């Protein structure tokens, strides 16, 4: 196998630099997706409208805008939550068990899980972006009115969560590219270096 | 011999993905219905929604990419570049189908909290055609993800064989 005399091959400085860069990127991505999840999950706005006036008594209705009303935002929260959990698990695995390997599959599993997380985040953020665009501009052909002029801070907070999720997506793309590069780097030169006196 | 089977398998998968994206584009672009409501003609086309426009554009980019890769892969295996481009296209397709599904769900069920009425009752033909396009558009990123895993495996197996 790769290890002789039970000793581990010395990790070259370039490889450990790469590991530290990926760890730093994962921390930033974790904070970005966690921020997106929390901001959207707490997104709620209640407003009282005067609906009609009978005589001199205004009849008011209280309307609430919550993120649960739209399945796209629910998917956004769930997707970003799962991405944050994935990043947290990967950070913990890198910090506490950096050399745990099962038949050499560790890097492949990390790369595949990273790719799945990227696809998940991209799905969630895009669904939320187009729902937010619909809420902001309405759709005259389908007679759907815009809601952002009435619920301004709901829209602002939703927009902030979407921006945070895009930042997280960008960092996750970088992390996935680096994980694939780590996977494709041939490890054989580490073993050969241990044979050189 | 095994390399030939693998190449054949790749090309079959890419042709399936190409078929899925082309079907999605054609059905979505040709979806059209109009209804008369109170002397007003109510037309539904895919142009009305930016989400469906983005869906068509993303599927078009994916089909062009698939055609290019089918013609290129018969010459040489570009390996890592194909893996990265496959991942980009998978992410693009998954985002486009999510966006289109979000808007289509509002069109079908409406959103009572926002005062948005469902439109599928008035333009049922449009809704059916969009459903077919969305199903094809859902199959496409699934096939692309399988392709991504296959190209990753194809690039990795010589390196893994050299390690052991």
UniProtKB/TrEMBL annotation, chain A:
<dbReference type="InterPro" id="IPR006459">
    <property type="entry name" value="CASP/CASPL"/>
</dbReference>
<comment type="similarity">
    <text>Belongs to the Casparian strip membrane proteins (CASP) family.</text>
</comment>
<protein>
    <recommendedName>
        <fullName>CASP-like protein</fullName>
    </recommendedName>
</protein>
<feature type="transmembrane region" description="Helical">
    <location>
        <begin position="161"/>
        <end position="181"/>
    </location>
</feature>
<keyword id="KW-1133">Transmembrane helix</keyword>
<keyword id="KW-0812">Transmembrane</keyword>
<feature type="transmembrane region" description="Helical">
    <location>
        <begin position="72"/>
        <end position="96"/>
    </location>
</feature>
<comment type="subunit">
    <text>Homodimer and heterodimers.</text>
</comment>
<feature type="transmembrane region" description="Helical">
    <location>
        <begin position="108"/>
        <end position="132"/>
    </location>
</feature>
<dbReference type="Pfam" id="PF04535">
    <property type="entry name" value="CASP_dom"/>
</dbReference>
<keyword id="KW-1003">Cell membrane</keyword>
<feature type="transmembrane region" description="Helical">
    <location>
        <begin position="21"/>
        <end position="42"/>
    </location>
</feature>
<dbReference type="InterPro" id="IPR044173">
    <property type="entry name" value="CASPL"/>
</dbReference>
<dbReference type="InterPro" id="IPR006702">
    <property type="entry name" value="CASP_dom"/>
</dbReference>
<feature type="domain" description="Casparian strip membrane protein">
    <location>
        <begin position="18"/>
        <end position="170"/>
    </location>
</feature>
<dbReference type="GO" id="GO:0005886">
    <property type="term" value="C:plasma membrane"/>
</dbReference>
<keyword id="KW-0472">Membrane</keyword>
From TrEMBL, chain B:
<feature type="transmembrane region" description="Helical">
    <location>
        <begin position="132"/>
        <end position="156"/>
    </location>
</feature>
<keyword id="KW-1133">Transmembrane helix</keyword>
<protein>
    <recommendedName>
        <fullName>CASP-like protein</fullName>
    </recommendedName>
</protein>
<comment type="subunit">
    <text>Homodimer and heterodimers.</text>
</comment>
<feature type="transmembrane region" description="Helical">
    <location>
        <begin position="12"/>
        <end position="31"/>
    </location>
</feature>
<feature type="transmembrane region" description="Helical">
    <location>
        <begin position="51"/>
        <end position="72"/>
    </location>
</feature>
<keyword id="KW-0812">Transmembrane</keyword>
<feature type="domain" description="Casparian strip membrane protein">
    <location>
        <begin position="10"/>
        <end position="141"/>
    </location>
</feature>
<dbReference type="InterPro" id="IPR006459">
    <property type="entry name" value="CASP/CASPL"/>
</dbReference>
<dbReference type="InterPro" id="IPR006702">
    <property type="entry name" value="CASP_dom"/>
</dbReference>
<dbReference type="InterPro" id="IPR044173">
    <property type="entry name" value="CASPL"/>
</dbReference>
<comment type="similarity">
    <text>Belongs to the Casparian strip membrane proteins (CASP) family.</text>
</comment>
<dbReference type="Pfam" id="PF04535">
    <property type="entry name" value="CASP_dom"/>
</dbReference>
<keyword id="KW-0472">Membrane</keyword>
<keyword id="KW-1003">Cell membrane</keyword>
<feature type="transmembrane region" description="Helical">
    <location>
        <begin position="79"/>
        <end position="104"/>
    </location>
</feature>
């Amino acid at each position: 196998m790769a290890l002789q005399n039970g000793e581990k091959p010395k990790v070259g400085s370039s490889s450990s630099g790469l590991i530290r860069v990926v760890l730093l990127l994962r921390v930033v991505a974790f904070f970005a997706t966690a921020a997106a999840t929390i901001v959207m999950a707490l997104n709620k706005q209640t407003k009282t409208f005067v609906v009609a006036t009978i005589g001199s008594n205004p009849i008011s209705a209280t309307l609430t805008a919550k993120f649960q009303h739209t399945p796209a935002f629910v998917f956004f929260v769930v997707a970003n939550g799962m991405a944050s959990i994935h990043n947290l698990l990967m950070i913990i695995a890198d910090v506490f068990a950096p050399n745990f390997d099962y038949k050499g599959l560790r890097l492949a599993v990390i790369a595949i899980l990273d790719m799945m997380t990227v696809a998940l985040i991209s799905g969630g953020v895009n669904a939320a972006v187009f729902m937010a665009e619909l809420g902001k501009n309405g759709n005259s052909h389908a007679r759907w009115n815009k809601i952002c002029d009435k619920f301004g801070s709901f829209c602002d907070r939703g927009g902030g969560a979407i921006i945070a999720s895009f930042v997280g997506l960008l960092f996750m793309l970088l992390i996935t590219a680096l994980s694939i590069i780590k996977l494709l780097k041939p490890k054989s030169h580490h073993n050969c270096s241990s044979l050189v006196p | 011999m095994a390399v030939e089977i693998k190449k054949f398998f790749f090309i079959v998968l890419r042709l399936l993905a190409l078929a899925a994206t082309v079907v999605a584009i054609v059905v979505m672009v040709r979806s059209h219905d109009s209804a008369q409501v109170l002397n007003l003609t109510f037309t539904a086309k895919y142009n009305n929604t930016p989400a469906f426009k983005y869906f068509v554009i993303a599927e078009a980019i994916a089909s062009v990419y698939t055609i290019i890769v089918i013609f290129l892969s018969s010459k040489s295996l570009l390996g890592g570049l194909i893996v990265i481009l496959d991942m980009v296209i998978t992410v693009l397709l998954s985002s486009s189908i999510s966006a289109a599904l979000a808007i289509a769900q509002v069109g079908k069920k409406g959103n009572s909290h926002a005062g948005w009425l469902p439109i599928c009752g008035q333009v049922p033909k449009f809704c059916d055609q969009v459903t077919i396009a969305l199903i094809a558009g859902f199959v496409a990123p699934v096939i692309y993800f399988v392709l991504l895993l296959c190209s990753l495996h194809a690039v990795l197996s010589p390196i893994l064989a050299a390690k052991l």
